[in-house]
Write a structure and sequence with these properties.
Structural class: mainly alpha
Number of helices: 4
Shape: globular
Oligomer: single chain
Length: 70
């Protein structure tokens, strides 16, 4: 079973988006960061997607608190 898509509280550099994506897809955070940096060299809205994920993905503490409330 895949991990939930949340921003972890540890192993983050800026917002934890790449670390959360790496955990979800089963790769290392460093690999995901390199993929993101290389993708920024290509035309497209990569940086805007990163900002949107920063806003939309819950942090690990909030997700755990929300699950405990059920």
């Amino acid at each position: 079973m895949a991990a939930a898509l949340v921003r972890p509280s540890n192993n983050r550099m800026i917002a934890g988006v790449c670390a959360g994506l790496a955990r979800r897809f089963g790769t290392t955070p460093t690999t995901m960061r390199v993929i993101f940096l290389v993708s920024c060299l290509l035309p497209g809205p990569q940086f805007l997607v990163y900002l949107a994920l920063w806003i939309l993905l819950p942090s690990e503490q909030k997700a755990a608190a929300g699950a405990a409330g059920w």
